[in-house]
Design a protein that fits this description.
Elements lengths: L1 H14 L1 H10 L10 H8 L2 E5 L1 H4 L5 E7 L7 E4 L5 E3 L6 E2 L2 H11 L3
Antiparallel strand pairs: 1-2, 2-3, 3-4, 4-5
Length: 111
């Protein structure tokens, strides 16, 4: 009986097109490409912000990347170096791949 149930489930999954679509929809979120400043700006519409040494009091120019969902009171994503992203004013969690960032965008955009 147990083997018959397993076989029926396998046949159902093999023939269930909705199941296949759901798996293909997951592929973009499995992208392990490491983030870069160019990817943040070109693929995710982050704003690259350059701050002069005079403004920061540092010895060199400071660059960071910024993205805000919704209005000014919404969630703001932040990257100091372009290789990882976090929610502004929080140290964790940190996202480092294209797939992770796509998942975050899906969640915040309620897709």
């Amino acid at each position: 009986m147990e083997n018959e149930n397993k076989m029926a489930l396998k046949n159902h999954l093999r023939n269930d097109k909705q199941f296949q679509v759901e798996l293909t929809e997951l592929f973009p979120y499995m992208d392990e490409t490491e983030l870069t400043g160019d990817i943040l700006v070109n693929d995710f519409d982050f704003k690259k912000v350059t701050v002069s040494p005079e403004e920061t009091g540092e010895d060199e120019i400071t660059v960071y990347y910024d993205y805000t969902f919704g209005d000014q009171y919404s969630v703001q994503l932040f990257s100091e170096d372009g290789t990882s992203v976090r929610i502004f004013d929080y140290d964790k969690p940190v996202w480092k791949t294209v797939g992770e960032l796509k998942m975050i965008f899906m969640l915040f955009n309620q897709e």
